[in-house]
Write a structure and sequence with these properties.
Blueprint lengths: L12 H7 L16 H7 L16
Length: 58
């Protein structure tokens, strides 16, 4: 059975370093502007507000 994809991320090397060895599936991309249009469009999406501990439903 194949796992369902639930997320895709554009990560920096620093992001991968912080995730550590438990993060095993990363596919490197060349240092060109292949994702420039996508990143520009994503930059226009407002961030999702994460609830703080005191606002989370119990």
């Amino acid at each position: 059975m194949t796992d369902k994809i639930v997320a895709i991320g554009l990560l920096t090397q620093r992001d991968l370093d912080l995730l550590g060895s438990g993060f095993e599936r990363a596919f490197a991309v060349r240092q060109d502007d292949v994702f420039a249009d996508l990143v520009a469009r994503l930059d226009h999406i407002p961030p999702v507000q994460q609830p703080t501990n005191r606002h989370r439903s119990r």
